[in-house]
Amino acid sequence: MTWDPPRIGARARWTRTITAEDVELYARITGDRNPLHFDAEFAGGTSFGRLVVQGGLTNGLFNALVAMELPGPGSVFLHQEWDYPAPVFIGDIVTAEAEVLEARADKPITRMRCVATRQDGVEVLRGECLVYTVRPQAS
User: Fold this and answer.
1) How much is the pLDDT for 92?
2) pTM, whole model, 2 decimals?
3) Strand duo 93-103 + 109-118: pairing
4) What pLDDT, on the 0 to 100 scale, is given for residue 1?
5) How buried is residue 43: exposed, middle or buried, by Cβ count under 10 Å (0-12/13-18/19+)?
6) In what order do the strands lie in the sheet with 93-103?
7) d(Cα 34, Cα 48) in Å, to the nearest integer?
């Protein structure tokens, strides 16, 4: 298959409600059982005021977005640079949005701006990523 680069400015979105089950499953996979995620008394005594979601769940939305939407199947990260300006709480609806900043014509590499927001419009992740799209070999 040939590489058909996405157009500059193309956008895609991926939305998910983050549940307590998501937090537990992520902890099972990664071992991240930070009390900020599981101990309500501990988290309540911090500046967050309540349980927060692991940052990996938030940036994981971009894994789904690039693999399923833009650039699409076969896409994997080469580089990610994320900032987390605000927390995600259990029950928040998070929307990840990516915009193509650059798409190489000679190689299947795409650079994108990434922003994730909660349902109240607050940004919870922002940054850029570089994505490589693996294409099946022509038979």
Assistant:
1) 98
2) 0.92
3) antiparallel
4) 63
5) buried
6) 11-17, 93-103, 109-118, 123-133, 75-83
7) 14
